[in-house]
Design brief:
Length: about 140
């Protein structure tokens, strides 16, 4: 664990997004139907489904990113902590709680190298982990 290399990209987590249902404001799921390894998100087609009210719609050209609100968001002091889905949230928790972080040397495009400073600073670690727990609880509701 200590030597884990956090070389994931945000796009690795983008196939699935948990959002607020535009109809009932509960959790809804967006699945990107195109494989984002081969297609840019802004030209992709996705489908939103809400298990609470049955809302469902096909969204084209990445429009879910503009028109929908992420479900997993919480405020950490004056900043917003957000995650796309469970896996992304777990990744964040692993990264923030890892005492020795190894960033990939070959790339500065990775998710780890692009996290905002407030999120990774040692003095905020407790607060951020608390925020992550809050978001995890939201998933269980
Ligand atoms: Zn709904």
């Amino acid at each position: 664990m200590e030597n884990r290399i956090f070389n994931e990209f945000l796009s690795d987590f983008m196939q699935h997004n948990i959002v607020e249902c535009p109809n009932c404001h509960q959790r809804a799921d967006v699945r990107v139907l195109d494989d984002l390894k081969y297609k840019y998100v802004n030209t992709s087609t996705s489908k939103i489904t809400c298990l609470h009210c049955g809302y469902n719609k096909t969204l084209r050209n990445g429009s879910h990113f503009e028109s929908l609100t992420l479900f997993l968001t919480t405020t950490c002091s004056e900043n917003t902590l957000w995650a796309l889905n469970e896996t992304h949230l777990q990744w964040l928790e692993d990264y923030i709680s890892a005492s020795h972080r190894t960033r990939p040397l070959s790339s500065n495009q990775s998710l780890a190298s692009r996290l905002p400073q407030w999120l990774t600073s040692a003095k905020n670690r407790k607060m951020v982990l608390k925020g992550i727990q809050k978001l995890k609880a939201k998933l269980k509701d």
